[in-house]
Automatic annotation (TrEMBL), chain A:
This protein's UniProt keywords: ATP-binding, Nucleotide-binding, Transport
Keyword Thylakoid annotated: no
Protein name: ABC transporter ATP-binding protein
SMART domains listed in its UniProt record: AAA
ABC transporter domain boundaries: 11-237
TrEMBL record, chain B:
Keyword Membrane: yes
Transmembrane segments: 12-34, 76-95, 116-143, 163-182, 189-208, 291-310
Protein name, per record: ABC transporter permease
Keywords in alphabetical order: Membrane, Transmembrane, Transmembrane helix
Amino acid sequence: MNEYEATDPVLRYDAVSKDFGRREALRDCSFALPRGRVAALVGVNGAGKTTLLRMAVGLARPSAGRIDVLGEDPAATGTPAGVSYVAQDKPLYRRFQVREMLRAAAVLNPGGRWDGAHAASLIADAGIGVGQRIGELSAGQRARVAIALALGRRPGLLLLDEPLAELDPLARREIMGTVLAAVTETGMTVLLSSHVVTDIEDACDHLVVLGDRRVLLDGGIDELLAGHRIHSGPATSTADNETVVHRSTRGRHTVALVRDHTPPAGPEASGSTPTLEELVVAYLHAPTSSDAEAA
Amino acid sequence: MIWLVWRRQRAALLLGAALVAVTVVALVVARLLLESRAASLGDSACLTDPALDCTGWGRGRELYDSFLGPHRFLQFWVWALVPLLGLIVAATLFARETEERTVGFVLTQSVSRTRWWTTNIATTLLPALAGALVLGLAARWALAPFETLFQQGRIGPLGFELHGIWLPASVLISFSLAAALGTWLRSSLAVVVGTVLGWLVIFAVLVYTRYDILPSSVQIVPIGEYDGTVDVDGLARDMAFRGAGGEMIPPGEVGAGCGPQENYTACLQRDGVVAAEFEYQPESNFWPLQLIQSGIAIVLSSVLLGSSYVRARRLG
Amino acid sequence: MVWGWRVEFRIERRSGVPTYLQLVAQVRRALRVGALAPGDRLPTARAVVEAIAINPNTVHKAYRELEREGLVEARPGKGTFVLHALGRPDSVTDGVLRTRLEDWVNEAVAAGLTVDDVQALFADVVERLYRGERTDE
């Protein structure tokens, strides 16, 4: 978490909490996202991923704490010009034609930053005609229009809430391909939420795990994987420099995911490197929090 | 931004315009029909001379009978259509954005919430006000000969609403109500229902308090001169009889023993009635009442629009 | 898959092999069968990323690995170009072996085998006959 602080984060949450009335949605969430990362925000449904993202564009306000997005406070100024956000249901005007949707986006983005030609070409690449009505598009086509409009803002930070949910595999790959091509071209930062790790495993290089209303783990995926080991066997013991994140026992067989405090782990370290899914699952099943010292 | 609001509310705005156009045509046609019928009956003077009594059994009777119903209908239609315009253009203004969640799109672009709200309101409220104005002017011109024929003043219900500045005030209330509810409720249907009910409640309260805001005038007629009817210059509200000592006698307490052939006033005199007293809201109170009631409507609308703005600032 | 390039990338998500190594292996295979020849340009990172939806760093990592092995060369502003083909007998691509393999595949198709069946069969035979020999993938 700390190794990125020097490289001016694009997005930073500082002890952010959010209550809806008496219900606590997020508690004391802190993490920073370095520039140029493609980050996965992972957590079970209802973990607060949507709320976390909505607060970054001013659609919701933190009950406590502060969010810094490209140097702006969205709670005060609304969505910063350099940020694009696509909600999970890809909201667009259903009665509009695609061309009218493009015009709407142009009208809503005065000030010269809007790149209508870029958005139009992304839509054309997807094989969607500008005369088609939004309401008649398939879920995948709607998602592609929504992403095209988001990229037309030429964002430095793109926030996507469950971008792949309810899409077929082809649409998933096309949408992630479009987003990642934009990342390659512009170096923009991406934070996308998902409740399924495998969907985004190959696309992301950064991870934020949200569970129990808190940020349980965050950092670069390579570093995180290198910093954890899986021990498996009848009598699992851990070394002094390790902390058990999660241990599951079936009969006499125990599998434990441990955090290695002396990274990078050399080849001489015992146990195996976890997969991303194993890592995420272990943290989501951890009894209390990322500080599992008590366990 | 204006284009976007226009595009979203296009159907509603065009529907409103069509209703206004049809109504204006109907009003003009009604006046022309009335005039040509009066001319063919030789009763044209009934439509221009307020002093001429064409409401009785003699002159103008056919004219009166044929056009009383249509006049009532037109009055009622204009009275109801004007607030309906506010509802039509504003019902889906904010509610549909939250209903279809496009608020999450529009509020994450580079337009401030203040500008978004203001453009939404201006682009729909101004046409609605214009529609109310056009309907008011058309009704004024088209219904004038009807009012002369039926000897109808401006102070009574329906007359009051179609004269003066009530029509713009009326559209302002329904519009503001719909715009405010639209930021609170997530359903256009709920907004429609809420606006209709809310507007009816507000209108009922205004009507029921209207004639008590300013003191009524009283006209006293000695019982010997009372022939069962009396002309007051305004809206008649109440009547009573007075005895020799000036005491009030409710109409229900006298005349019970009058025979069918007996002269009614003579009978009343026998029961001790010396005068008939008529209470009425005078026509001269028309403008003060218009200003008071429209003022209430404007203040109320401002509060509603203010709440809509405050709510829109926090919408998400 | 990246069409229009002489190498076609695809990622096997369940294989357990790191993605960048899969890319490296596929370039090697293309070099081996002659689909890529010295002087050819590898697809740009953007094209690969767009086609198979993987993180751009993965492509860079794969290309760096190929560069380290001396198979390709990055020319700034121009792209990444193939330096060497991987040696193999000439007969493999256009010779007798290929023709016979094509005949065999035609028979398999005629017998109603699916692509998966054929690949599984092929992999099984290769595995058994080459047992103990290290592959370079």
